[in-house]
Amino acid sequence: MKELEETVGWLRARTSVSPRVGVVLGSGLGGFASRLTDCVDIPYEAIPHWPVSTAEGHAGRLILGRLRELPVAVMAGRAHLYEGYRPDQVVFGVRVLGRLGVRALVLTNAAGGINPAFQRGLLVLISDHINLQGANPLVGPNEESLGPRFPDMTEAYSARLRQIARETAAELGIPVAEGVYAAMLGPSYETPAEIRFLRTIGADLVGMSTVPEVIAARHMGLSVLAISCVTNMAAGLAPGPLSHREVLETGEMVRDRLSRLLEALLPRVAAEVAGS
Ligand code: HPA
Question: What pLDDT is attached to residue 34?
Fold first, then answer.
């Protein structure tokens, strides 16, 4: 893929950081990036071929830096299908990180809570997903240099990394749950009837991102950990309408907690995937 190689070459010319772990920060969750040192911080619009995210609350920067000793790459903000991007554009950043050498990808997102045991502000480790976006980033001729035509998705979300995340959260006193994430195209929120349907088919969370990136990451053989922040209870489960404002406000509320968790977690994730 010519564009991918051009972007990777462009980035390599600007930093000596060889990231081992990649992080994608979702809506209103961008705070973690400020914990890095020795940073090269590049706005997406400056990077060749990089899709520029337009959603409010998405900063849109790639940060290559160090978390203490650990070299990491952080995408603050992501492209979504609902913005009109093609699936291959949505996953471009993840593929760049894969080519830069990350072995594990930690994704965060804002999600609606479907499981009635969840509440606003809860962090949930994604255990599996249901792709209802009607799109897949691997459609089209397979790029053999990235991965196989028919990648396995049996354990898309590493059980081992989830275990490490649960242990780390427990040490920090941060409550975390686990659940299945249903990916919708958006940008309209779901109807209450759609939420009842999603609950019936086994979803605990609903959102509009992450799944294309996970598919592209698994295609490349990266280990994946994904953490949803329940920014609101899904449509029909709480009184009143949903709003993007509520999503951003809850994101701000949990940003610190999520940053603390990521800071403790990333070195352990890196150690787990070292040599893979
Ligand atoms: N639905 C879909 N996406 C979301 C939601 C939701 O309720 N909250 C945050 N992202």
Answer: 85
